[in-house]
Amino acid sequence: MSYISPSKTNFTVGLQYRGILEVLLFSAPITASCCVLLFINGTMLHILRSKAVFCETACYVLLYNLLFSDTIQMVLSQLLYLLSAFRIRLTYPVCGFLIMLANLTTGISPLTLVVMSLERYVAVCYPLRHASIITIGNTALAIIIVWAVSSLNVFIRLILLLNFQFEDLESLQIKDFCSNAALLLGPMSDHYDKAYTGVIFVFAGVAVTCSYIGVMIAARSASTDKASARKVRSTLLLHLIQLGLSLSSTIHDPLVTEISKVLDRVTILRIRSILYVSMMLLPRCLSPLIYVYGLRDQTIRPVLMYHLCCHQKRSQ
Question: Where does the record place the G-protein coupled receptors family 1 profile domain (predicted)?
Answer without folding.
Answer: 40-291
